[in-house]
Amino acid sequence: MKTTKMNIKNLFLGLLLTGAAGFLSAQTTQTDSAVTTTATANQSSNPAIEGLKKQIETNPKDTEALAKLATAYQEASDWNNAVNTWKRISALLPDWAPSYYSQAYAYQSAKDDANAKAAYEKYIATVKPEEVEQSKKNLAYAYFYVAFAEQQSNPDKAKEHIAKSLQYDPTNQDAVKLSQALNS
C-alpha cells in the first residue's frame, strides 16, 4: 500500500506541477456547454477511460488507476465523474491532500463554487507540514480562492486567507489586488 501511495503522490506531484497553470486559470475559464456536452458524449467512447474503468472493476481500491481515471475525466471535461472519482480516492486515502485540491478544481470547473470552496478548505487542512514546501503554489491558490469567496460575507476571514496566500506566493498579482481591495 505504501508503494502505491508513493506512486500516486509522485503521479500527482507531477500532474499538479505540470497542470498548475491550468488549475490557476480555471477560475476565469468559461466552459462552452456544447464542448462539455460533446466531451461527455465522447467520454463513453474514450478508450483510456473505458480501460481504466475495467481495471477498477477488477480492483476497486486501485488508487493509482482511480487517479488516472479522475484525470482522464478532467481531460474530457466530465466534471461530475471527475468529482465522484476524486471522492472515491479521498475515501480510500483520506489524508492525501492532492485529492481534495483536485476535487476543488473539478468543482470549480463545473461552476460549483460552494463545493469548490469547501474542497479547497479541506485541502488546506489536509496538507501535512512536511508537504508544505512542495505545495506552496497550490496552497497559495487555495487560500486565494477561499479569500475571494469570503470577501463579501466574511471580510476578516478573507483578509486572513489572502495574507496566507501571499505568504506562499507573493508574486500572484490577483492575490495582491485582492489584498489591496480588502485592506483599503
Overview of the structural elements:
- The chain is mainly alpha-helical.
- The protein has helices spanning 2-18, 20-25, 33-43, 47-58, 63-75, 79-92, 97-109, 113-126, 136-150, 155-168, 173-182.
- Helix 6 packs antiparallel against helix 7 (97-109), helix 8 packs across helix 9 and helix 9 runs antiparallel to helix 10.
- The longest helix has 17 residues, at 2-18.
- The radius of gyration is 17 Å and the shape is elongated.
- The termini are far apart.
Write out key terms for the chains shown:
184 residues, mainly alpha
CA-based shape: elongated
Approximately what portion of the residues adopt beta-strand conformation?
Answer: under 5%
Order of helices and strands: HHHHHHHHHHH
- Poorly predicted sequence stretches spanning 5 or more consecutive residues: 1-43
Question: Roughly how many Å is the radius of gyration?
Answer: 17 Å
The average pLDDT score comes to 82
How far apart lie the N and C ends?
Answer: 50 Å
Largest sheet: none
Tally of helical runs? 11
